[in-house]
Amino acid sequence: MTTPETGRPGVHARIDAVWRLESARITGGLARLVGDVGLAEELAQDALVAALEQWPESGVPDNPGAWLMAVGKRRAIDRIRRDRRLDAKIEEIGHRREAEAQGPPPEFEAAEDPERIDDDVLRLIFTACHPVLPARARVALTLRMLGGLSTDEIARAFLVGEPTVAQRIVRAKRTLSEAGVPFEVPEGSDRAARLASVLEVLYLIFNEGYAATAGDDWVRTDLCQEALRLGRVLARLAPREPEVHGLVALMEIQASRSRARTGPAGEPVPLHEQNRGKWDPLLIRRGFAALLRAKELGGTPGPYVLQAAIAACHARARTAAETDWPQIAALYEVLAGVAPSPIVELNRAVAVGMAHGPGRGLALLDTIADDPALRGYHLLPGVRGDLLARLGRTADARAEFERAAALTRNEPERRALLDRAAGMHGDGSTATGRAREESR
Fold first, then answer.
1. Are residues 220 and 283 in the same domain?
2. Which of 56, 81, 183, 244 is most buried by its number of CB atoms within 10 A?
3. Helix (H/G/I), strand (E/B), else coil: 268
């Protein structure tokens, strides 16, 4: 049985929606079959092409995911049969699966075991985010194989050329194959190391959507939503990992502010100036629930749980004035001990400046001002400008805002920083910008 459509555009939109939902489990299932993530992704793409060719004429199957999986498996068997270079083990797998190719039409195939599907997706997440790959390659491969995004969509999201993204994906798959990375969920210490890589990739994707590093848009909601979706999937597949729930909590709470983070012209609206009535209460509740799950699992809080706790402090405050800055500063001090970095210290300086006065914040900031990791980082002069403005040092603050504007590659943020520089007054007041939002 098929679903009637009203024309090719309607079918193509349906295929796109199905692919976004099903691509990860299809690729994961095929990877389990052939033992090669790169080949599995190619076979999944072949199934997608078959759908694009057949569904506009035949209609969309009742179970489109099963249809795509069946076609992918049959293409895998065909590939195994004709590729004599594959070793005996792969050939044996092909013979073992041959019976499936003689089965009923794809739309009537029995449903896959849900637990096995979950295992396949979890294996795929750990494989795509393997530390053997550079961070940019992990991001591209994750969005391609787990998010179902096209090469063009990934390129547009990160403002790079499509050939660059295509090369990253090809090289990533080749690297995984040459390194002999197994399609499995690692155990023990290896699992902990790989999990950190998975969480890093998801948060990189989310952060690029939350505050774009370059381009004409301050927020890219699609990237935030995709990272959050993948985080929720990971939390369901790895329910005993506190840091997974911590990252989901952090993303849920930060995503709750999306509608309040930009003004009418797309300009950034800093945290303390946002209309909190626009914050999404459902996402906040989901974030609190995820944070509670993380805490209930016990153990020493990790960096994502601590960052989620900081975000929760902001979410609990009905107004900016009610924000518990001493608690946020204390949490940043713990975070600095668990995951020390110049960026954490930069955020800590903001929190200390809000909790204990701009003088103390500036003193803390001065301890990291010469750190090589912050060289060229626009938020360092941005934070410094805010602290100087609150101390009444307007000329110095104006210079810092102008320096920050020259360093950022995001156009809305550049304009906002220049406005802050131009809006400085002799009393030290300013249209305070993103600096305070860094303590999230």
1. yes
2. 244
3. strand
Q: Which of 323, 357, 385 is a domain's end point?
A: 323
CB 343 within 8 A of CB 368: no
Rounded distance between C-alpha atoms, residue 183 and residue 120, angstroms:
9
Q: Which two tokens stand for residue 195?
A: 């999990």
Instruction: Check if the beta carbon of residue 65 is closer than 8 Å to that of residue 26.
Output: yes
How far CA 57 is from CA of 20, 105, 108, 261, in Å, comes to: 22, 16, 19, 44
304 and 247 Cβ atoms separated by less than 8 Å: yes
Q: How many domains does the chain have?
A: 4
Helices (H) and strands (E) in the chain, counts: 20, 4
User: Alpha-carbon distance 203 to 305, whole Å?
Assistant: 13
Domain assignment present for 160 = yes
State residue 119's pLDDT score: 76
Are both 254 and 370 inside the same structural domain? no
Considering only CA atoms, which of 122, 150, 2 is closest in space to residue 67? Answer: 2
Alpha carbon 1 to its chain centroid, in Å, reads: 37
Question: Per the domain annotation, does 403 fall within a domain?
Answer: yes
Tell me what pLDDT residue 333 has.
Answer: 97
Domain that holds residue 152: 129-179
Residue 220 in contact with residue 209, Cβ under 8 Å? yes
Q: Residue 430: what pLDDT?
A: 43
Which has more confidence, 43 or 293? 293
